[in-house]
Amino acid sequence: MTAVGGAVIDAVPPAVKDWAIALFGTADKMALLTGMVLVIAALAALAGVVEQRRRFAGVGVIAVFALAGLAAVLTRAQVTPNAIAVPFVAALVGMVLLRLLIRRLQAWNTSPSDGDGADVGEADAGGTRANRTEGGDPPARRAFLQVFAAGAAVTAVGGVLAAVWRGAAAGINEARERLRLPAAQSAAPAIPAGAEVRLDGMQPLITPNRDFYRIDTALSVPALDPGSWALRVTGMVDREIELTFAELLAKPLTERHITIACVSNEVGGDLIGNARWLGWPVRELLALAGPKSGADMVLSRSSDGWTAGTPLEVLTDNRDALLAVGMNGEPLPLEHGFPVRLVVPGLYGYVSATKWLTELKVTTFANDTAYWTPRGWSARGPIKTSSRIDVPRSGRPVTAGSVMFGGVAWAQHTGIGRVELRVNRGPWQAAELAPGISLDTWYQWKLGIDLTPGQYEVQVRATDLDGEPQDEERRPVAPDGATGFHTIRVDVKP
After folding, report:
1. Burial track 313-339 (b if 16+ CB lie within 10 A, e otherwise)
2. N or C: which end of the chain has fewer CB within 10 A?
3. Which residue range is the domain that position 361 belongs to?
4. Reported pTM
5. 56 plus 135 within the same structural domain
6. Helical axes 57-74 vs 28-53, angle rounded to 10°
């Protein structure tokens, strides 16, 4: 089922993907799985109906669905012989059960009922009912219920297999919980005093792991054993390298606060988070491999086959691009890439933030294409300067007087120099900008504005440390990130 779901995700146009994220947010995968269950139920019902009307027609429906499942499995990067066998076994079981159920149902429908006077095996001279069960059910009905019970048993077996898979994932999670990360040789700079603006409704300066956004194409979270994990560096290099998890942990690790964002983040959206990451600088690994002249891109690959294309210069300059193993003081959560993921300041995640990392291929943009590029997204994805109003919430009433506004602004790897608000398209007013942790994190801000009762439109804009203001023109997330001023409506009550 996850293979089919993955194939669906791969096949949908970018506009559909954007619509799903906008509508369901981080619950988009659950929505897809729910829809798949409903479609499968509808196909099962269709198979039953057509099989009852015409022999083997329903079996054909199952066969077509099985072939679709097989094709989906074959497209997955983690395909195994066992995975290939699953659609065949499922189809065979489904066909057998369908034929048995149809036969029993037909027998049941043709058996005389109690209301017709006498059953097929009705009374002999002594008044016994030889062909009825002690409970009074006709044999055909009893057989139908037995087959139905067999189908339930098969479903239960499927549940057991799913539980076994969950048990394997639980085992990896236990290994993660037992893991003790080494201390960073280069510790994260201390958070400046006053960096966190404490207003009711404001998100924390550091996003807790449980609240950190998750956007990826994996319907089931990969469960990678850190004991057998390895990262390969291949392609246009002087020396191909294979790095184990133990070897990675033995490297001089760096800890930094870095804000990362999804390119699907709408203006004012929450697909962005700030965390303290622990890892080894990617530039150190690439220096060992020795990129060859002419290379300009690194194609990073996830265990599930997903790829991202990152400019080589971004991974070899002085920014803190990390092979991350830790997040906010603990090993990466499974859903955020355990055991190792990429974190690159200044780039949207679709070109940089590969989770469940297994390969770095040094190559060129001309010769290799990452997952999202042929689906209409730009090959390079620098994060755009942006800002957001977190409080008060749009549309919620506030009391007249000094209304306190607060939010965040970001220009990763450049830094924020100024945040301003305007009311009803009036003059811009400078907000109080809290000190940033670094150029690679978001900044919080606040501003009190005196407002009398009425309806107001409030907008925010940020200017980076180079003096460039954020783009006012409203653009959608595709192909390289949304732009525009975050705008809220405030209802001020007496």
Report:
1. ebbbeebbbbbbbbbbeebbbbbbbbb
2. C
3. 209-375
4. 0.74
5. yes
6. 150
